[in-house]
């Protein structure tokens, strides 16, 4: 395969979609050898069919704010691929959302979901609506207007959304409620639902916990103990907070958080009580991370408009905010300060330059589609419970999550281990394993 020609042609057709092209390029560069091994793939132009989404729904969402003003946002659902199961993936509400970002996320989701071993295709949706600063009633009206447009494209065996940036239990609840009203059916069409109406235990925790479980698997390959290690986290939302919770349980030191206004660094690590304060600040009061720094000037430094990476001496980095939040300079700073492992909670948080730095330094580096797959895995378990109309215990879901993360690690090792060395290229491993399952399914199902 001529990877460069393929990417050049895709860039020509989709010239204003840099995040989408970035995500495709990484995968295409990983799977070239495997693709060439099976000429049948080429004969049915499998790669192009796998890289271009099956379908995109886009629409205007009009809603009324608390002052009576009519507001308009864009809404989208990218249904990327359903070869191995119904479309599945989160919904993002953030002012930065555009089609390029949702296309990259839906593309990544397809490979991630394949790695989980559960029957889920890949999708992503969202809007440039920002819940920040909106009242609960404004968020509710927006969610209802959004679902009024989208509901015909969803269903428990068609397309099952969940949360992502700006979409948590509150938003999923509002969207689920309106979906139920529009369809007059109670089905498991959303995951991340409240526990009282079909949600799974451990779903809120799953992405963060799963990332730590994946990290433990990586550290084990080098005989490294997590205890006492300093871990830099970015973000302070769902993924970041539950990553920190699990790390503290395991005796690691959590030394940073961030949000879109800036970063806090606590060089000695936060205590359990301080974690609880941050957790309450973010989840109960929807506060800003700066407020913690204001309350603890003695232990904590606040860096406005910055990310944590250049300000930490971290053994481990777990970026958990957003795409392209670790660039080449950040990576070089992390490495210079002794970083030995990077495990991505966010989707595509490292730029290609940063990934090159981590891999050249041969540290442990896990891409998001492997390391953060715990969230969608427990979404898959929520779908299974909904189908059975049963609820599993926390212990059962957590045990399955650990197994799934260990299995994803094993797949990365199988396809990513370099010949003649112990080094595991987790990018190549995850992309190849994820690709092969979807590719086999597409081959078996014919051209459509
Ligand atoms: P949340 O909305 O709960 O938290 C997002 C956090 O990242 C907030 O602290 C937010 O700050 C910060 N952030 C968002 N956008 C930016 C930006 N452009 N620049 C700087 N900071 C930003 O989302 P999640 O924790 O759910 O998602 C975090 C990442 O994890 C995303 O990449 C998501 O795709 C990925 N992910 C999420 C999963 C899930 O189950 N929720 C599963 C797998 C991956 P602020 O509040 O200021 O915007
Ligand atoms: O990026 C992701 O994997 C998610 N936001 C979770 C998707 C899901 O369907 O649970």
Key words describing this protein structure:
binds (2Z)-2-iminopentanedioic acid, alpha/beta, 5-stranded mixed beta sheet, 448 residues
Structure described in brief:
Helices cover about 50% and strands about 15% of the residues.
Task: Describe, in plain words, how this protein is organized in 3D.
The protein is of the alpha/beta class and 448 residues long. The chain starts with a helix and ends with a helix. Helix 8 crosses helix 9 (238-249) and helix 16 crosses helix 17. The chain contains 17 helices and 12 strands. Strand 11, helix 13 and strand 12 form a beta-alpha-beta unit. Bound molecules: NADPH dihydro-nicotinamide-adenine-dinucleotide phosphate and (2Z)-2-iminopentanedioic acid. (2Z)-2-iminopentanedioic acid binds next to strand 3, helix 5 and helix 15.
List the helices and strands and how they pair.
Elements: H1 3-13, H2 18-37, H3 39-43, H4 46-51, E1 55-64, E2 70-81, E3 87-93, H5 99-115, E4 122-127, H6 136-150, E5 159-162, H7 169-183, H8 203-220, E6 230-233, H9 238-249, E7 253-259, E8 262-265, H10 272-283, H11 290-295, E9 301-304, E10 316-318, H12 328-336, E11 341-343, H13 352-360, E12 364-366, H14 368-371, H15 374-388, H16 394-416, H17 426-445
Parallel strand pairs: 3-4, 3-5, 6-7, 6-10, 10-11, 11-12
Antiparallel strand pairs: 1-2, 2-4, 7-8, 8-9
Helix pairs in contact: 1-2, 2-5, 2-17, 5-17, 6-7, 8-9, 8-15, 8-16, 9-10, 12-13, 15-16, 16-17
NADPH dihydro-nicotinamide-adenine-dinucleotide phosphate is lined by residues 94, 96, 163-166, 168, 207, 235-240, 259-261, 320-322, 345-347, 372, 375.
